[in-house]
Structure formats: structure tokens, C-alpha cells
């Protein structure tokens, strides 16, 4: 690790350095994708810590996903600034709430609602409103939106009208369901995900002593992806900061993609008005992508309209030129998936690692056909349930064995050079029959092997970053990752929705299903909703470092009516289409590929949440087992519950002491 604090500033450009060294007072970074915002704030924290100006425990870094938080913690440790809290708003709030609840309210914090849609169904039944499955999900989404925008049930109809939102049902009805839902939760002493933030806000607002205690703990705040902060999160942030202004926010209005859940770039764009003495830094050098990718991203934004568009920042690539983006039209979806799988196989053959490749789509239901095509092509891919990595039995067992070995002061039978942690891990796993070579065939045995191989790789990466680390350090790292549900990168192609790809990057990105009705999605009706879809595509395009492929298909099934059209956002960007708003197209290959002859045999289908293999027809259709929460829940409650029990187990009583 670098010696002094100044070493942390190496590898930053002058503007990023300005961010990293502005340790006091409000700082706002407005910058496009790939310009190093996340890097700048991570180095800023490390610089403050290394320079001795900032205590690690006094920093609260807020990120958008648990994965991003885990990555930031890892990076901070590499930079010699371990011990800094990097969490999502929810995780940070939950931790504080758990700690203060017994003192402020008494007793333990109520349980989190596990099946929220189910509870909404009961609430609807109570007020005699019939909702079908889809409506239930939509109404649950509306209740969420109302809560994060701090709208009480009575005000919901007016708020919907004001926001120009299209309610899935009569707003007066939704308001009644919302009232009944809140009532039901009270009766059962459960809270939902939004309540975690609402209650934390409530405690901090009503209890001055509690607010003071939190503020004396945290002096420095950093928020990544600030364009997607909700009014409720902002209120919490204001309470944490308490007018002190040691707040650094970074964001890109052109990447606002969560406004349907109540997030708004308003706070990012009005930061200067709220903090007139703020240091505002703009970054325009794009370090992530080739000039070709950046050109396409700029072209896409040049057509954007609306408020966020007024704040777009033209990106300038700092990288060597690479291949032109490829635009491909396919006859139908299976052909698109097979064509994509073929190209991925070629990329892997040319030396690109599978973990450096992603297939991104608009809705999760699109993943099935890609999972199938990749499996058929023999390409490993990462199941969406990969974040539940630490719950797999073999990983839990390995964790226990490693903990035991660490306590015993070395690997079981490792004998081995003490410092060689990966070798110790291999030895411990080897004692249970694991071999460095994969077993023949696929299925459960292979899955087990892959999980353990991922653990070995994690150990290798860990010691590369921290050569002095011991097995005990690795065990601590595993515990922390398990708590944050931060799975190691699995050596496989990533399949993810565009929303889930935020903040991440890959060497090769395949944006698939880019037809009208998908991007923009059919239910994006208002101009603002359509603009959000364009931003979503911008997020997708800017995930690529080097290879970028965009594709769509003319019909869903083979032999179907070729009624689909390519996304309107591609007009002017793909070859042979007239540029609108001066956006030039990239010279690219294009052509209609023939659908594959005959359907392939189906491989095993796995639950996309927990990875269990499925056999029930209904489950296979949903790609999800009955026990797992729906897409809407994203496994959040589950993960929270696991996280809480894990924390409780690790810390003993009282379990959530943030101050020790
Ligand atoms: P996004 O808006 O997508 O979240 P970002 O602005 O947060 O992007 P980062 O993820 O921080 O961008 O950086 C993008 C890539 O560029 C990363 O691989 C990062 O390591 C690299 N990078 C950033 N700044 C520099 C720099 N000064 N020199 C070299 N590489 C850099
Ligand atoms: Mg970022």
C-alpha cells in the first residue's frame, strides 16, 4: 500500500484531485458516466484518512446498492482506509434504528414485512377492492412511491395528479388500500422497507439526544449516485448532516433512472442553491470507454429533452480507439439470443474473460431466452441469484471450516508458507474433497465446485490487494461481505437488467431487445417517462469499456409476425438512419440474421432468485420458485433478514451498536 496521503492522489486528474482534497465544506461533483466520480470520492475518503484529517469511523459513505457499498469498502481498504462505513441508505438507517429502538421505543425493532404484495392483497380485500396480480404489484409500487415522496394516504390522489403520474387504478381506491395496508401493518407489528427510513427520520426529528449522538459519530458524508436520491432519503441526509455542510455528493442528471420510485435529480441540480458556498466540480474526461462508445453515448444524449438534458455534459474519451459498436437486427428473439451467445463465444475465444461480458435487458423476464442460449453455447453465466452466494450451503460450510482453521492458526494440514492464504484456503477445501480442477459435467456438483472456486479466487484477489493479510483477515472479509451480501465476481457472463447495471462496467456489453415497446417500454407514456427510458439506454451504453453491441428482433417467436420496430432512440445513431439533433451514427455492421432451425432441447432451469433448479411447469415459466419473492421485492426483505441475523450472530448483544 502507498506510504503517505499524497500517494492516494496519484492516478487522479486535476479536477478529481480538487474533489479529493476539498475535505471541508459542501462539495458537489456533476459529471457524466465513466468520468471517475466514484473513484474521486473513494480517493477523497482515503486521502482524508491517510492525511489524519478524517477519522475512519466518522465517515458515512452512502451508495446505491449493497454491491457498490462492498466494492467501495474493498477499494478503501486497498487504499489504506479500512473501517469506513460504506452502506446504502437503508442499511445505514436500519443499523441506527436497531440501535436506538430499544431506548427510544422499547423492545426490539418490529420485523420487516416479508411478503409485501400479499399484505397489499389483504388490505385490498379488507376495503373490498378487487385487484388482479399485476394490479397488486402496481398498487404496492404506488404505496412505495407515496411513502418515499412522504405522501400520506389522504393526500395520495392530489399528489398523483400533481406529479402527472398515471395511477394503475382510481387514486381514491389506492388511497383506501394504502390506509388499510398501514393499519394491517400496525395490527401485526411489522414494518416495511420504507418504514425503516420513515422511522429513522421520525426518531432523529423527535429525539434531539439521539440526533446529537448520531451527529457526534458521523462528521463527514459522501453520497454516490446522488441524482437518484428520493425526498425521503434527502430528509434523512439533512438530519444526519445537521447543517454542518461536510457533505460531498456526486451524480449525473443524465443517469436519473429511478424517478418512477420517487427519486429526483432536483436535489443534485439545486445543490448550489442550497449550499451557496459549495465547491462545484465538473469532470468531463471519460476514462472508461473508447471514443467509439463515448461518441454513441454523446449522440444519444444530444437527442435528450427535458430538465436533465439541459445539464448534460459532453464526454471526452481518454482511451485508445476500439471497435465500432455493432447494430444487429434479428428475425426473432431466439435468433437474437443465439446470435448474441455466438458473439460472446467468439469474444471469449479471442481472450475476453466471461466476467468481463454483460448482457443487459430492459425487463427481467427477457433473461430466460438468454440463459438458455448461453447454456446451449456452453458459456458460463452468472445467475441473478448470485447475490445470495453466502447463503449457499457449501459456502456456509466452507466459511465455518475457514473460521476454525483461522482460529487454529493456519490452514488444516496446510503446513504451507504461513502467508500464503489462498493455499491455506485450497488446503481447507481440499480436506473436504474440493479439487482445483472442475468436475466433469454440469448440474449441482458443478455448481458447488463453482461456488468454492469463487471463494478461492476471492482469497487470491484479497491477498493481491493486501499482501500481508492472514487467514483471519480473510475470514473477517468474508463475514463483512456476507453481511453486505457482496458476492465475489463469479467467472461467468453477467445477465442483468439495465437498472441493475448502474455504476458498473464491463469490457463487452450487449444491449439486447432494443425494440419499440421495450426501450422505451410500453407503459412509458408521458414525455418525462420516455426521457427516463432514453437515460436508461444511456446508462446501458456507458457500461461498456470497449465492445458494445446493440440488437433487437422483429418478432417475438420464430415464424411470428415481424411487427416490431427498432427503438426510436437508435434513430440517427445506427447506420442508414437520418440523424436527428445532429447525432452522427457509428459506422457499424447490420443485417437480419436467420432464425435458428428447429428448437433446442431445454437445459435445467434455475430459480433466478435463489438458484434452486426448477421442475414445476408454473415455476419454470416464472423462472422463480414459489418460495422466493417476486421481482418487485428483489429479494430485499430476505436479504435484510439474513443480514440482521448475521449481524446479531456476529456482534452478540446488543447486536446493532454503531458506536463501538
Ligand atoms: P458512473 O457514472 O457510471 O458511476 P463514474 O463517474 O463513477 O461512472 P468510475 O466508475 O469512478 O466512474 O470510473 C470509471 C472507470 O475509469 C473506472 O474503471 C476507473 O477506475 C477509471 N478511472 C477513473 N478516473 C481515472 C483516472 N484519473 N485515471 C485512470 N483511470 C481512471
Ligand atoms: Mg459511479
Automatic annotation (TrEMBL):
<comment type="similarity">
    <text>Belongs to the helicase family. UvrD subfamily.</text>
</comment>
<dbReference type="InterPro" id="IPR002121">
    <property type="entry name" value="HRDC_dom"/>
</dbReference>
<feature type="region of interest" description="Disordered">
    <location>
        <begin position="563"/>
        <end position="599"/>
    </location>
</feature>
<dbReference type="InterPro" id="IPR000212">
    <property type="entry name" value="DNA_helicase_UvrD/REP"/>
</dbReference>
<feature type="domain" description="UvrD-like helicase C-terminal">
    <location>
        <begin position="291"/>
        <end position="546"/>
    </location>
</feature>
<feature type="binding site">
    <location>
        <begin position="31"/>
        <end position="38"/>
    </location>
    <ligand>
        <name>ATP</name>
    </ligand>
</feature>
<dbReference type="InterPro" id="IPR013986">
    <property type="entry name" value="DExx_box_DNA_helicase_dom_sf"/>
</dbReference>
<dbReference type="InterPro" id="IPR014016">
    <property type="entry name" value="UvrD-like_ATP-bd"/>
</dbReference>
<keyword id="KW-0413">Isomerase</keyword>
<keyword id="KW-0347">Helicase</keyword>
<keyword id="KW-0547">Nucleotide-binding</keyword>
<dbReference type="InterPro" id="IPR014017">
    <property type="entry name" value="DNA_helicase_UvrD-like_C"/>
</dbReference>
<dbReference type="Pfam" id="PF13361">
    <property type="entry name" value="UvrD_C"/>
</dbReference>
<keyword id="KW-0378">Hydrolase</keyword>
<protein>
    <recommendedName>
        <fullName>DNA 3'-5' helicase</fullName>
        <ecNumber>5.6.2.4</ecNumber>
    </recommendedName>
</protein>
<dbReference type="Pfam" id="PF00570">
    <property type="entry name" value="HRDC"/>
</dbReference>
<dbReference type="GO" id="GO:0004386">
    <property type="term" value="F:helicase activity"/>
</dbReference>
<dbReference type="InterPro" id="IPR010997">
    <property type="entry name" value="HRDC-like_sf"/>
</dbReference>
<dbReference type="InterPro" id="IPR044876">
    <property type="entry name" value="HRDC_dom_sf"/>
</dbReference>
<keyword id="KW-0067">ATP-binding</keyword>
<dbReference type="InterPro" id="IPR027417">
    <property type="entry name" value="P-loop_NTPase"/>
</dbReference>
<feature type="compositionally biased region" description="Low complexity">
    <location>
        <begin position="571"/>
        <end position="581"/>
    </location>
</feature>
<dbReference type="Pfam" id="PF00580">
    <property type="entry name" value="UvrD-helicase"/>
</dbReference>
<feature type="domain" description="UvrD-like helicase ATP-binding">
    <location>
        <begin position="10"/>
        <end position="290"/>
    </location>
</feature>
Amino acid at each position: 500500500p502507498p506510504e503517505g496521503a499524497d500517494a492516494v492522489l496519484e492516478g487522479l486528474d486535476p479536477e478529481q484531485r480538487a474533489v479529493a482534497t476539498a475535505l471541508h465544506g459542501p462539495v458537489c461533483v456533476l459529471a457524466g458516466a465513466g468520468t471517475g466520480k466514484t473513484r474521486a470520492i473513494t480517493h477523497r475518503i482515503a486521502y482524508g484518512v491517510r492525511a489524519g484529517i478524517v477519522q475512519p469511523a466518522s465517515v458515512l459513505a452512502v451508495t446505491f446498492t449493497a454491491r457498490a457499498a462492498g466494492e467501495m469498502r474493498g477499494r478503501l481498504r486497498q487504499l489504506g482506509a479500512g473501517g469506513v462505513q460504506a452502506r446504502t441508505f437503508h442499511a445505514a438507517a436500519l443499523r441506527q434504528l436497531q440501535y436506538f429502538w430499544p431506548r427510544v421505543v422499547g423492545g426490539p425493532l418490529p420485523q420487516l414485512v416479508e411478503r409485501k404484495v400479499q399484505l397489499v392483497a389483504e388490505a385490498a380485500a379488507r376495503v373490498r377492492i378487487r385487484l388482479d396480480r399485476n394490479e397488486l404489484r402496481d398498487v404496492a409500487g404506488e404505496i412505495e412511491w407515496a411513502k418515499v415522496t412522504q405522501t400520506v394516504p389522504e393526500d395520495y390522489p392530489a399528489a398523483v395528479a400533481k406529479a402527472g403520474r398515471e395511477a394503475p387504478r382510481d387514486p381514491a381506491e389506492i388511497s383506501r388500500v394504502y390506509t388499510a395496508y398501514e393499519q394491517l401493518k400496525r395490527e401485526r407489528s411489522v414494518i416495511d422497507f420504507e418504514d425503516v427510513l420513515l422511522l429513522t427520520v421520525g426518531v432523529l426529528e423527535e429525539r434531539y439526544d439521539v440526533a446529537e449522538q448520531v451527529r457526534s459519530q458521523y462528521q463527514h458524508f459522501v453520497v454516490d449516485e446522488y441524482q437518484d436520491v428520493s425526498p425521503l432519503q434527502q430528509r434523512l441526509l439533512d438530519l444526519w448532516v445537521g447543517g454542518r455542510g461536510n457533505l460531498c455528493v456526486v451524480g449525473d442528471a443524465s443517469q436519473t433512472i429511478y424517478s418512477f420510485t420517487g427519486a429526483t435529480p432536483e436535489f443534485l441540480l439545486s445543490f448550489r442553491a442550497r449550499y451557496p458556498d459549495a465547491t462545484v466540480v465538473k469532470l468531463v474526461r471519460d476514462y472508461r470507454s473508447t471514443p467509439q462508445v463515448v461518441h454513441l453515448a454523446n449522440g444519444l444524449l444530444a437527442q435528450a429533452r427535458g430538465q436533465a438534458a439541459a445539464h448534460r455534459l459532453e464526454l471526452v474519451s481518454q482511451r485508445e480507439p476500439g471497435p465500432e459498436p455493432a447494430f444487429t437486427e434479428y428475425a426473432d428473439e431466439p435468433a437474437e439470443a443465439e446470435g448474441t451467445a455466438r458473439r460472446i463465444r467468439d469474444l471469449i475465444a479471442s481472450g475476453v474473460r466471461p466476467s468481463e461480458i454483460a448482457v443487459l435487458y430492459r425487463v427481467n423476464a427477457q433473461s430466460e431466452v438468454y440463459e438458455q442460449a448461453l447454456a446451449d453455447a456452453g458459456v458460463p453465466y452468472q445467475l441473478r441469484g448470485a447475490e445470495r452466494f453466502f447463503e449457499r450451503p457449501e459456502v456456509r460450510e466452507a466459511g465455518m471450516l475457514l473460521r476454525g482453521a483461522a482460529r487454529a492458526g493456519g490452514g488444516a494440514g496446510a503446513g504451507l508458507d504461513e502467508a500464503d492464504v489462498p493455499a491455506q484456503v485450497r488446503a481447507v477445501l481440499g480436506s473436504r474433497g474440493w479439487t482445483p480442477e472442475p468436475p466433469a459435467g454440469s448440474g449441482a456438483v458443478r455448481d458447488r465446485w463453482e461456488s468454492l472456486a469463487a471463494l478461492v479466487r476471492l482469497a487470491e484477489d484479497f491477498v493481491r490487494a493486501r499482501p500481508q493479510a492472514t487467514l483471519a483477515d480473510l475470514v473477517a472479509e468474508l463475514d463483512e461481505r456476507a453481511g453486505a451480501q457482496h458476492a465475489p465476481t463469479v467467472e461467468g457472463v453477467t445477465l442483468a437488467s439495465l437498472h441493475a447495471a448502474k455504476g458498473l462496467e464491463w469490457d463487452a456489453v450487449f444491449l439486447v431487445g432494443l425494440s419499440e415497446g421495450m426501450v422505451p417500454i410500453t407503459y412509458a407514456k408521458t414525455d418525462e417517462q420516455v426521457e427516463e427510458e432514453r437515460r436508461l439506454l444511456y446508462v446501458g451504453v456507458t457500461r461498456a469499456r470497449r465492445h458494445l453491441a446493440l440488437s433487437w428482433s422483429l418478432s417475438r417467436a420464430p415464424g411470428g409476425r415481424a411487427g416490431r420496430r427498432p427503438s426510436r432512440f437508435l434513430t440517427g445513431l445506427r447506420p442508414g438512419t437520418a440523424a436527428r439533433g445532429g447525432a452522427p451514427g457509428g459506422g457499424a455492421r447490420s443485417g437480419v440474421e436467420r432464425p435458428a432451425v428447429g428448437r433446442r432441447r431445454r437445459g435445467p432451469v434455475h430459480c433466478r432468485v435463489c438458484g434452486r433448479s426448477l421442475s414445476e411447469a408454473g415455476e419454470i415459466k416464472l423462472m422463480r420458485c414459489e418460495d422466493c419473492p417476486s421481482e418487485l421485492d428483489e429479494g430485499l426483505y430476505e436479504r435484510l433478514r439474513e443480514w440482521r441475523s448475521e449481524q446479531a450472530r456476529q456482534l452478540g448483544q446488543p447486536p446493532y451498536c454503531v458506536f463501538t
